[in-house]
Batch of 3 targets.
Target 1
Amino acid sequence: MRSSKLIADRFEIADLDSDLIGRGGMGNVYRGLDRQTGQMVAIKALRADLLASNPEMLERFIREGEALRQLNHPNIVAMLSAVQEDGRHYLVMEYVEGGSLRDLIDRQGPLPVRRILEICLDLADALTRAHRLDIIHRDLKPDNVFVAKDGTPRLTDFGVAHLAGSPSSTQPGMIIGTIEYISPEACRGEPLDGRADIWAFGVMIYEMLTGKRPFKGETITDVLLAILSEPAPDLDLDILGAPEALGDLLRRMLEKDRYQRIASVRLVGAEIEALLHERTGSKPGLDTPGRFNTPTPPMAKKGRSNLPAQAVPFVGRESELAEVARLLEAPDVRLLTILGPGGNGKTRLAIEAASA
């Protein structure tokens, strides 16, 4: 006998067994019908037993709804309604027909480079929106990315996200996120910022390229030690058919010191966009500007160099570059040190000076 459920006299789950489409840490997700619009919806129900044993789960559930409410973006699953009824709590969201990025990787293994760039460009755009609103996802992984039938990715599950201005529900030293994707600073239980999402994004790109996670171990402790102390395994970019600039971007996303990591997900998106335009032979023009407003990178210089490849042009710092060149040519200068706060482009300036 089928067991159905009607929520707020509007959202209907026809069969609680056959319409169960997912189980998460906080609750179950069902396929449902919005009787007002006739559209399919996804209904996330907070587990009553979990709420009874851990009241903090309600705070996280509410925070997820608030994050989704603020994040109006085509690559983030939209929230339609939050319902509290008969002591139960529900989030009604956009239903994405397809599967998760995890399903895609498990089914296909390594993905084609162009497909990876397309997915990552959309995800970078979504994360840029979140970070602009000071929302940190903190659990970025392929399981939390839906891929619609048209191939468009949708970021979901903001259950452990941190919202600006809201008190933290985690204790100092507590590890937040899924072990294989957490950053070194998360391993140490430090307060997190958007660079933790950049690290997890880098792990996802590595996994899409190879079908494997970069940091593994037989136990949780082994994985944590690998994240903290072992470099990501080298990629054979020729075999993977990936450009050198993508490997360089990945290395900068997986810098263990977050102050040396690429500074923002917007910069990640800019480099991915440039790589995608280079690969497709197109470039944004005046009528169709790029999503991150970056032109196609110039052709790499001929000749062998061990300097990291740069996917985007170096502009707006000509005077600084000229001053570095002048000092390097001065006969009384034997060592030049570039100083400045983390993330302000010291490394890029040095690379450009060395390449000149």
Target 2
Amino acid sequence: MSPSGELSRFRVTLGLRAPADLAVYLFPGVQLQELLNRDIALLGDAEILWATRSPDPELQQQRLLSYMLLRRVLGSWLGVAPGSLSFELGGDKRLRLRDASRAPRFSLSRSQGLIALALAPVTVGVDVETWQSQAQAEQLLQVLHPDDQRLLSWLPPELKAREVTAAWTRKEASLKVLGTGLLRDPALDRVGSRVHPLAPQGVQVRQLRVPHSLGAEVAVGWAAD
């Protein structure tokens, strides 16, 4: 089936590959809770185990819903029933398909009821973050690369909060591609600006345009040739 209910869908061209090679979906998780209630039996042990590692019931529900959406989108891409897909936890503790020979790579992110999903033929990372408060943005700013700090520090407070949030999504998306997460010092690599994003060697990253009314930022990164 074609995935439904997404707020936005993006296509990103990867070099000479087809424009449909990388897709990013943004879903309103809160509005899709009924989907989880109806189809939760389709989820496998690996998904339920990973979701329930958190003691936070709300986070558990968001994770379970994101896995259900992943099943629906992957099933649509592969032309199979969502319930026929089988997942496992890899050695890196990431959820992955047992038979990934013809499946795209995927990445999930969740923030305040929003769920982002990216699919690509190469290693991919996506991050969604609702706009940080001015106080939160100031804290995040301190852990970015010094050049990024200088670029962002002069902005008016409200705009700074949004731009720091965007910068952080570029950081998270890049680190997901590297597979390190925040084990890699966030201050090591520049993230640049929306128009001229930067990423570590071997990674490309792009800031995506999402509806202003969502109060959120989304970035996607992928392994470069």
Target 3
Amino acid sequence: MTAPHHPKQLSRKAREHMFRIEIVLDAAQEVFMEQPFAAARIEDIAQRAELSVGTLYNLFESKQEIYKALVSRQQDRYFERINADIDSTDDPVEQLHCYVSAFFAHVVENFAAWRFHVYATAGLSSTLRNELFQEAQEAQASFLRRLTGVCRTGIDSGVFRAGLAPELMALAINSVPDACLSLAFQQNHPKVLELAPGAITAVDRIAGVA
């Protein structure tokens, strides 16, 4: 895969193209937050982006393509944030704590995007759902490999409990933030960041951290 170009390395025309794509995706997120996918129209997105419908179609072939690009952008931003925080330390315990803290911070900082991803899916075709599911599975599998590496390092160094395979430990740890968030919303918990300490405690127990 070719490495992505830094924006400053691109021509002015290419930078303008990327800028317009971001404008469309920002506008689409707002539209999809206000109405489900099936009800949203290309015209609504173009109007919100302050672009003509023709210009929008020069950037994206369909509403489905816009939606898919929007979900991909959110997913990329999430994993970039998580991996950057994990990279900030070499201590496996701190890496797990960074992961959990970054998860909840990302939800708070991108709450509209998170709600869109959870709720704005009515009317998606089965084909698009399958494509998005496959993409999400691949991204999640890649991150689980990263988390498995953290767990393996912790086990090998004697910091984490022995006797539990690093793959299983990573899988269990990865489920904690999502489970806490889902439970909190079921109970109408308004302060997402307050969930982080409890999630960190649960992660420490799974890893066997004293």
